[in-house]
Amino acid sequence: MYEKLCILADAAKYDVACTSSGSSRAGRKDGIGSAVEGGICHSFTADGRCISLLKVLMSNACSYDCEYCVNRRSNDVKRATFTPRELAQLTIDFYRRNYIEGLFLSSAVVGSPDATSEMMLKVLLLLRNEYKFYGYIHVKAIPGTDEKLLSALGTLADRMSVNIELPSNDGLKLLAPDKKKEDILKPMGFIKQGISQNGSDLVKYRHAPKFVPAGQSTQMIIGATPDSDYKILNLTSALYKKYSLKRVFFSAYIPIVDGRNLPALGTKPPLLREHRLYQADWLLRFYGFEASEILDENNPDFNPYIDPKCNWAINHMEFFPVDVNKADREQLLRVPGIGVKCAYKILKARKAGKLDFDGLKKLGVVLKRAKYFITCSGHTMQGIKIEYAPVMSALMSGATYEAYTMQNYEQLSLFDENRLISKEDVVKCLTGQI
Amino acid sequence: MSYRSNIVYVYDGSFDGLLSVIFDAFSRREVPEHIFTYDNEENTLFAVHEVETADDKAKRVAKWLRGFSGDVFTVFYYGYLTCVKNKEMELLMLAIKLNKEGKNAIFDVSSRAVHTLNKGILALKNESHLFCGFVRFTEYSGVLVSEIQPKNIVLPVILKHFETRFPNERYMIIDRTHKSILIHDYRGSQMANYTDFDLPPIPPNELMIQDLWCGFYDTAAIDQRRNYKCRMGHMPKRYWATMTEMKALLRDETIRSINTERHDALAPRAAGTSH
After folding, report:
1. What is the mean pLDDT of each run of 10 residues along chain B (275 residues)?
2. What range does the domain containing B30 cover?
3. Residue in B165, B174, B185, B214 to test binding to A, most A beta-carbons within 10 Å
4. Taking residues A177-193, what's their average pLDDT?
5. Which residues of A touch B134 (CB under 8 A)?
6. B126/B151 Cα distance (integer angstroms)
7. Among the three residues A209, A242, A268, which one is the final residue of a domain in this structure?
8. Which residue in A72, A101, A232, B193 has the fewest CB atoms around it within 10 Å?
9. In this predicted structure, what is the pLDDT of residue A207?
C-alpha cells in the first residue's frame, strides 16, 4: 500500500490545482466531513505548494503515449492501480486525522476513457453513499468519456476539471498524438452546460442535487511548446468567457522524460514565466483587464523585470494620475500598489472624509509604487520627482532593478527601440505637457 | 473613572473573571496600574485587589456590552482570547472609552486600545484558520487525540469547525500552551482545564497510517521547484512540532545542528516499521 500510494501520488503531483475552495457545505449528523467556502490548506510541501487534497491517480497504467507525460505507455516506470475500496478507505483514514480536506482524483487512461471514468465513479459512490463523506472532492474528467458518466461524476464531485495541457493544437499534435482539441473542449462544454442547467433546476426545486458546485478548472503546461505568452493569455481569457471556468492553472514544464520534441532534460522550469501568467490571470479575473491590454502581437511576451500591471501603467501614462478622492473602482484598480482590498477600503473610507497620503498608508496602499500614479485632491505627494529611473526602481525590488539596469546599459547601445519608455515620455505624460 | 490609582488587580484568568474586573474598576471608580492573573502575578509595591469572579457581575457587564452592539461584545470576547500583551488593560481602557463615547468607539482605529486589539484579533483569527488545517489527530482505540501549541486561545474559535466536520467522532484537542482541552463526543463539545499528562505511545496500526501520510507528503513535493522559504512563509516552524509529517524533519534538523546550512528536506525519511 505504501509503495502504491507513493507511485500514484508521485504521478499526480505535477497537477497544480490543489484548491479546496468554492464549495460550502455543513457537515451532517449521519456522516463525516464538511466543505469550507474559502478552502483550507492542511500542509505545505518542500516546494511551498499547499497540500489540501489527497492528490492521487486512480492508476498510472496509461494506454496513451503523450510525450510530455511520465505515465506514457512507452516510459519505463512502476505501474500501480488502486482498487476503489482501497482509495475510499485511505481517503477516510486521512480525513479523520485531519490530514486532508478531501480527495483529488485523476487517472491515466486505463483501457478506454469510459472504463477509467467508471472506476473513478465507483470511488466517489463509495465515499458519498457508503462512507457518507461530505468533504471536498475534485475529479478529473477524462476526455472522451460518455456524457452520462460525466454527469454522474458531476453530481458527486465539488469540482471537475479537464486539462488542456498544451495551449495550441499544433502542440497537442506534436506531443500528445492521442488527444484532440475537440475531445478536451467537449467535456468542458458539457460541464458548463450542466452547471447552468443545474442553476435553473435549483431555482425550481430547492433540493435538486448540486452539479459541480465549486465550478470547473483547467491547467496548461507552460514551456513545453514554443507558444507565446500572448497566445496563452488569450486562450485563458477565452476559456473564462466561453466556458465560465473558475480557474485556469499554469504549470511550468519540468522535464522528467526525454523526448524528441521536448526541451532537454536539464532545462530549468520557467517559474518566472508561470508567475507572470498568474499575475496576468489575476488581472483578468479581478482587476477588469482584457488580455489585449496586457499583451499584444508586438509584445507577445511578458516583461521579466516588472509585473504586468506596472508594465501596463508605465505604458499608459496618459491614464494617470488618478485622484484617489474622485476615481471610481475601475480606475483605482489600475494603479500599481492598489489592490482589490485596498480599492474597497478607499471607497469605504472616502465616505467618512477626504483621504490624504498618510491615510492611504494606513489603509494598506503600497505608496512606494502608488505615489507616482495618484493624487490626493489634486496634490501629488510632496517631494516626488517623476523621473524615469526612480519610477522604474520603485516598481522593482532592489535585486531586480540592478539586473535591469545592467541589461539596460547593454541594450541602450544596441537595441534602443527596445526600451519600455523614455524618460521624456514619463515626464511628459505625468506633467501633461505633450 | 477620574484617576489612575496605585493599585493592581489580580483575577483568575477566565472570561467571566475579566468581566468582573471591568465591573470592579467601574464600581470602585479607579483604573488599576496593572491587571494580573494568578498565574503571572508579579510582586509589586502597589496594593493588590483580588477580583472575585462572580456570575452576577459578569452577567451585568456582558449585558451592558451587548447593549452597545453584538460587535462590541465580540471584540471583548475575542480580545480576551488573544495573546496581546496586557490585553486586560487594553480591554478595560476600551470599556472606559465606550462608556464615554458610545458604541462607535470600537471603530476609532487611531486609539491605541482599538488598534492593538484589532491587530491581536486578526492574529487570533489567522491562527485559528491555520489550525483548522494544521491540527493532526492520532487515533487511540477509537478516540482521536491532537496536541497543539498555539499562541492565542484558539480552541473556542475552532470548536465549531471541528464539530460540524466530525459530528460522530470522539476526539480531543489538547492546547499545551494554555493547558486546556477540547473534548467532543456524542453529547457535544466541552472545554476543560487539565494538569499535565503525557500521551501513551502510538499504537502500531496508527503508525502505519502515519507512515502512509509521511510518504505522501514527501512524494508530493516537486524536486525541481524546491523552495523552503516559501514553505516557511506559509507554515512557520513553530507549528511543525505538533504536525505528524513535520516532526521527523524537525528532529533531523536539530540533530544536524545549526552550523550546517544545507538541510535536504526532500531526502526520503527512514521508512517506518511496517507497511
Report:
1. 74 91 91 87 83 91 91 92 90 90 80 86 92 91 90 91 88 89 87 82 88 88 82 87 83 59 47 40
2. 7-125
3. B165
4. 76
5. 42-43
6. 11
7. A268
8. B193
9. 65
Q: Which of A2-11, A370-379, B107-116, B247-256 bottoms out in mean pLDDT, i.e. has the lowest?
A: B247-256
| Grid coordinates of A208 | 435538486
Determine whether the interchain pair B215/A34 forms a contact, defined as Cβ–Cβ distance below 8 Å. no
Least confident span in A285-294, A302-311, A421-430 = A421-430
How far is Cα A188 from Cα A360, in angstroms, rounded to an integer?
A: 43
Task: Give CA B153 to chain center in angstroms.
Answer: 2
CA dihedral A126, A128, A131, A135 (to 10 degrees): 130
Do residue A54 and residue B225 have CB atoms under 8 angstroms apart? no
Is residue A344 a part of any domain in this protein?
Answer: yes
Q: B231 vs A32: CB contact, 8 Å cut-off?
A: no
> In chain A, which residue's Cα lies nearest the Cα of B272?
A2
Indicate the residue type of A334: R
Looking at residue B126, what is its pLDDT?
A: 92
The three grid cell numbers given for residue A78, joined into one nine-digit string: 512502476
Chain B residues near residue A33 by CB distance under 8 angstroms: 165
- Of the candidates A51, A90, A96, the beta carbon closest to that of B220 is on A51
Are A32 and B224 within 8 A, CB to CB?
A: no
Say yes or no: A76 and A153 in one domain. Answer: yes
Do B215 and A2 count as a contact with CB atoms less than 8 A apart?
A: yes
**A280 part of a folded domain:** no
The predicted model scores a pTM of 0.79
Q: Provide the number of structural domains found in chain A.
A: 2
Q: How far is B191 from chain A (nearest CA, A)?
A: 20
What's the rounded mean pLDDT across residues A117-146? 88
What is the least distance, in Å, from the CA of A46 to any CA of chain B?
Answer: 6
Res A23 pLDDT > 80: no
- Checking ipTM against 0.85, whether it exceeds it is no
Domain carrying residue A335:
319-431
Inter-chain touch B266–A31, beta carbons under 8 Å: no
According to the model, what pLDDT value does residue A201 have?
A: 73
The count of C-alpha atoms lying within 13 angstroms of the C-alpha of A134, restricted to the half-sphere facing its C-beta, is 19
- Which residue of chain A has the CA closest to B244? A99
Task: Give the gap in angstroms from C-alpha B6 to the nearest C-alpha of chain A.
Answer: 36
Asked if residue B19 and residue B106 are part of one domain, the reply reads: yes
Which three three-digit cell numbers place residue B195? 494538569
Give DSSP secondary structure letters for A64-81.
Answer: ---TT-TT-TTS-----B
User: Among A175, A183, A217, which residue's Cα sits nearest to residue A19?
Assistant: A217
* Spatial separation of the C-alpha atoms in residues A200 and B105, rounded to whole Å: 46
Q: Which of A3, A46, A135 sits opposite B228 (nearest CB)?
A: A46
CA distance B44 to chain A (A): 38
Expressed in angstroms, the distance from the first to the final Cα of chain B is 68
Task: Give pLDDT, residue A415.
Answer: 40
Same domain membership, residue A230 and residue A87: yes
Q: Which three cell numbers stand for residue B274?
A: 511496517
